[in-house]
Amino acid sequence: METPLLKDGDAGNRLKAENGDYAEVKCISEAATVFKEETIKLWKIAMPLVFNIVCYYATTSLTNIFVGHLGELQLSAISISVSVIYTFAFGYMLGMGSALETLCGQSFGAGQVHMLGIYMQRSWIILLLSSLVLLPIYIFAAPVLKFLGQDPDVANLAGQYTILTLPSVFSLAISFPTQKFLQAQSKVDVMAWIGLIVLIEHAVLLWLFIPVMGWGLRGAAAAFNITEWVTAIAQLVYVFGWCKDAWKGFSWDAFKEIWAFVRLSIASAVMLCLEIWYMMSIPLLAGHLPNAVIIIGSLSICSFVIEVGKFCHGTILLEARPTKFSVYVAVFQSLIIGLLCMVLILVTKDYFAVIYTDSKELQQSVSKLAWFLGVTMVLNSVQPVISGVAVGLGWQATVANINLACYYAFGIPLGYILGYVANFGVMVEETSSRMQKWGGQDISTHKVGDDI
């Protein structure tokens, strides 16, 4: 039986079918109305979270900008530290806390709002214990990077920076659960405001510690630690002061059923880690190529643009209703955004690297990568949205298997073949001499301790 139309002015001018989706659209005007309705709902939910993600990745970009003007070696060192060590920790911690997203969403939907605080405390306990596992990786970062085949000078400097950022690991154990706690209650506006304030604070600290006080990478590490903990503390202040329904204080119930909590996160953890750790493998492979300092530096500049687009697009469908028309709208709009980003990158390919570095050689390397960066932005505009649909439907295990096949059975071997066997590298031409000069000295004889 055909579903009758609602009166003009009702949401979408359509009755919903039993599955919660719209009834069949039969003309262009109805399609336009549904498109408008879905767009409003989509961006009302996703915009604050997208903005928060942009602010989060902008803090990393700002760090690269300030450090990049110190020199190529420093930029490469901080890039390999963030891309390998921090990305490993980020994926691991995010995966271990992933059960909270499911449990908080279910409890809030069932009206058991008080359980959100219990689950958040339980996640704090698990992630704080998980942080201890990461300590050896941070402490022995330099030997680990050398074992993985990275340039010794880059690895040594990256290891020193990584140890200095160790306090930030424990902030993740607080931030991730608190974000999921707020997100389940749709308190996303406060997350956006915190993201903006923290971004401004981070920029001020970087300016104060690096150009003004001359602390170099030590200043970058100090600013990063402070920023991570300011984020965590600001979220806690809001939870303790303005979430009285969901936060009833500390409870011993948080220690119950911890193992079940851990088991629930395994599928999501595998899915997230496979995707995030794949990005870690790219600079590792690049570190084996000639001119590793230049190559890693150019990849670091491009990776920020890629990651922001990827996570922003993914957020749209992770937070939206996974109905048929919401999927259509999200995929279409994400594709348009991806195309606009590609055009912007291609138009500014000879200029945008100037923000990050004064090195002419590094700027030219980034310019040569612009076409690949633009195509990647288009592809990344659709793939995360589809993944978001699958996560919204509870298909984490399926997505994990797909990621395993695409990233590790296909992506990494193809990258190795193109980079090493076919000698494509990352489209960076080798100079007549592989020994790059740094401040009038060969990198091989430059004292790493002087840079940090």
UniProtKB/TrEMBL annotation:
**Highest taxon in the source lineage:** Eukaryota
InterPro entries in the cross-refs: MATE_euk, MATE_fam
GO cellular component terms attached to this protein's record:
membrane
Alphabetical UniProt keywords: Membrane, Transmembrane, Transmembrane helix
Look up keyword Metal-binding and say if it applies. Answer: no
Q: Name one Pfam family in it.
A: MatE
Recorded GO terms, molecular function? antiporter activity; xenobiotic transmembrane transporter activity
- Record's bilayer topology term: Multi-pass membrane protein
User: Which GO biological process entries does UniProt record here?
Assistant: xenobiotic detoxification by transmembrane export across the plasma membrane
List the subcellular locations.
Membrane
TM segment ranges: 45-67, 73-94, 124-145, 157-178, 190-210, 258-278, 285-306, 326-348, 369-395, 407-428
PANTHER family noted in UniProt:
MULTIDRUG RESISTANCE PROTEIN
Family recorded in the similarity comment = Belongs to the multi antimicrobial extrusion (MATE) (TC 2.A.66.1) family.
The name on file for this protein is Protein DETOXIFICATION
What high-level taxonomic lineage is stated for the organism?
Eukaryota, Viridiplantae, Streptophyta, Embryophyta, Tracheophyta
